[in-house]
Amino acid sequence: MNMINDPREHLVVIGNGMAGMRTVEELLKLENANRFRITVFGAEPHVNYNRIMLSSVLAGDKSVDEIVINSREWYDENGITLVTSDAITKINRGDKTVTSASGLTVHYDRLLIATGSRPLAPPIPGLSLPGVCAFRDIADVDKMLAAAKTHKRAVVIGGGLLGLEAAWGLKQRGMSVALVHLMPTLMERQLDAAAGQMLQRDLDRRGIAFFTDGQTEEITGTEHAEGVQLADGRFVPADLVVLAIGIRPNIDLAKQAQLEVNRGIVVTDDMRTSDPEIFAVGECVEHRGNVFGLVAPIWDQAKVCAARLAGDEEALFVSKALATSLKITGVDVFSAGALMAADEADDEITLRDDSRGLYKKIVLRDGRLVGAVLYGDVADGQWYLQMMRDKEDVSALRERLVFGRAFAEAGSGKPATPDFAAMPDDTQICGCNGVCKGTIVSTIQAKKLSSLSEVRAHTKASASCGQCTGQVEALLAFAAGGAVKANKKTVCDCTDYSHDEVRQGILAQKLKTMDAVREAFGWKKKEGCHKCRPALNYYLICAWPGEYRDDSQSRFVNERVHANIQKDGTYSVVPRMWGGLTTPAELHAIASVAEKFNIPTVKVTGGQRIDLLGVKKEDLPGVWNDLGKAGMVSGHAYAKGLRTVKTCVGSEWCRFGTQDSTGLGVKLEKMCWGSWTPHKVKFAVSGCPRNCAEATIKDMGVVCVEAGYDILVGGNGGVDVRVTDPLVRVATEEEVLEYAGAFMQLYREEAHYLERTAPWIARVGIDYVKKRLVEDAQGRAALHARFLRSQLFAQVDPWTERAMGKDAHEFATLPAIEAV
Amino acid sequence: MSSNWKNIGPLSNIPLRGARRLCLKHEGRPVAVFRTGENEIFALLDECPHKKGPLSEGIVSGKTVTCPLHSWVIGLEDGKAQEPDEGTTQPLSVKLVDGDIYIHLPEAVGAAA
Lengths: 820, 113
Fold this sequence. Notes:
- The structure holds two protein chains of two kinds.
- Chain A is α/β, with parallel strands linked by helices.
- Chain A is 31% helix and 20% strand.
- In chain A, the strands form ten sheets. In chain A, strands 3-2-1-7-19 form a five-stranded parallel beta sheet. Chain A has a five-stranded parallel beta sheet with strand order 9-16-10-11-12. In chain A, strands 22-23-26-25-24 form a five-stranded antiparallel beta sheet, sandwiched between helices.
- In chain A, helix 20 links the parallel strand 33 and strand 34.
- The longest helix of chain A is centred in the C-terminal third of the chain and has 18 residues, at 733-750.
- By secondary structure, chain B is mostly beta strands.
- Chain B is 0% helix and 42% strand.
- Chain B is built from no helices and ten strands.
- In chain B, the strands form three sheets. A four-stranded antiparallel beta sheet of chain B has the order 2-3-4-8, with no helix packed on it. A three-stranded antiparallel beta sheet of chain B has the order 1-10-9, with no helix packed on it. In chain B, strands 5-6-7 form a three-stranded antiparallel beta sheet, with no helix packed on it.
- Mean pLDDT of chain B is 88; it is low at 108-113.
- Classes of the chains: A alpha/beta, B mainly beta.
- The A-B interface holds A 433, 457-458, 460, 463-464, 525-530, 533-534, 552-557, 560, 565, 569, 618, 809, 812-817, 819-820 and B 3, 6-9, 13-18, 20-24, 33, 37, 54, 57-62, 64, 66, 68, 70-71, 73, 84-85, 100, 110, 112-113.
């Protein structure tokens, strides 16, 4: 081995897996890490990867590269000698050496055993046939993927976490999948029977066939696996059999070295084995009678082990209550602690809603929460887990506890702001990008971040839907303390000027092109960036209607191709239905289009129209052409502009209706469609205060009353639900239309790009909006007039234009010209 | 001219500060050709290093393109993601000859769209 003259102590790690390397990573973070030179032996040919994510690789959600934790460069940079494809076969405690399969013998001062676990393999005949594999490492996944390409039928044996994820992955890869499980219900160690049955029902609907109460007798076949024979006579044919019935700690080496072993390698609270120079972590260990299969306690072990290696004599490993979740898209399962009452002194409280697929059960013992099983909605899982860990008395919350955090705390007067210090590191903050509290805090501290945009850039937290922005800001304040900068909000990093300053400059200096704006304000990048280009393009459209020419290259793809890009690269098409009204002819046309273009999903939207989902890009002009022939135009479902005007049937049909809400909705939509706005805009008109059109959570809502029309503004039904502020009550439809146009124009002229009406009004105040629209009749009329003028240029149906050939390059790939 | 250089038509086929995806693929993977505001051309695999987003649908600014899925900014010259993101998408050779764009595809497996 190299570095033989290195005088430092030698730490040898057996096992290049998650537990061993996490311990090394933790060690490297410590000041004393330098006392060791480190050698790592791995039996697999790969660098260190995230084994938990193998199911995502199988399902095609991630590539092998994406689950690598540490690259070879990382080992080099940290001076770690990595020996792959060479398993240690012997530990010689007498002379403190280890010997590898290839015959390499190295001396150690400290030894870390992290040999993990092996798949459980009961003595079933046929296990060694080709076409039978476990689900443990990359080689297994490769086998399964190869089988999925050439074969059709897979059988997974084992209905626990691992088996279900394997079954789902193979299903995603196009195989027909059956799952054999010994017990009557799935995941019986984590779920009670009710939740297990709901899980089975959901997966059954997704096309996995279940054989529960199924004891495998034999895997049949001569040259290759052909099927699974169950003891009760049932037979399941298979080309691929995946054995996933469990794991057992890999203790062979330790046993042979005469370390104390039981089910696993026995360790004390300091992660030492019975030999004080030899440590062990991960799935191979047994601590106070427990063995481990989930990652959270193993991370804790790694931390303790690293501290001990570095000389800390205080660090102790404590087993905490654990939670389980299942990585199957769209199936939400959470389980922690006791699954059911252990005796009559325990209480079970259950909430079950079969039609919505919801199930919640909590188990109480002596006034404390000791178990929770959640199915369908797992949002409160971490909250329950924390209560279990804190062992706090929850008697006062007893009646409300099962309904979840929001309800329980609303009733208790306890503030809902999270306690970050107590929050576990693995609590997910950003659901879109899967970023946990621990990652955010450690990145803020390591990179000395001091603003939200930096946190977004480095961690991706709150960089997608933005729902968690408030939490991330609060975490930033928590983690960075006083170091948070109160940054001026500029348009983007290309400029030091704010949105308002740029907008005023555009008007005052009569700047009419993006180049002119960037030059006048000394933009740092000549062509701007993806943030400022769409903003400037909108500000110029708004400021100079009819003069400024829209730059499609400065628009996000949805607005450029006038359809919503979906996650698989197809598009959705939503034709306008004025006020939610349609006709038999339109419905015929939609049906014909869906059939002609093989559109897989047709859905009624929340905005009272019909969404055609899964349209191929090259089919878009054809789809629009056919819809256009039936008189339909773009619903702008992709646009920062007017989306829908939702209505109820109103006085024409409804016995409660006070005015013609449908008719008014159609008039509003006809007036406002096609306009570009800072963000999307939704209207609604309800025919009476029963408010069936949900007007009180729209950007502008109208609620009809006997005396006229109540106009409400600034509502939002999205992430942060905000109820509208009342603006004014008027007597006639004409007044409603004038207010609507004026409100649209005020929002268009004064809100920042990407600011919905709700945060805009929250920023400027409803009193300001009233001052401009209600108290200033002349100003209102002028705003309304400016809106109508801009609509002269905006109300062009983009679909008709594109069906006629405009921007054809957007909808076709570029062909090669035949070789000359 | 080597047969590995494929003529993909005139520069004007690609919008200024825009991109197109090709019918041709490179080793089975999609290819995007970009035209900057300065009329330079570049080609990259049409897969963001992050989640394989279609870079040809992104906004082109200077010599960068922003992925439409999660706004990673990718350099057109070297295919590298701008910091703090890390990753590279493979750049491919392109050249302009007599106003036509040629792209170098070593083992071009033609797939007519």
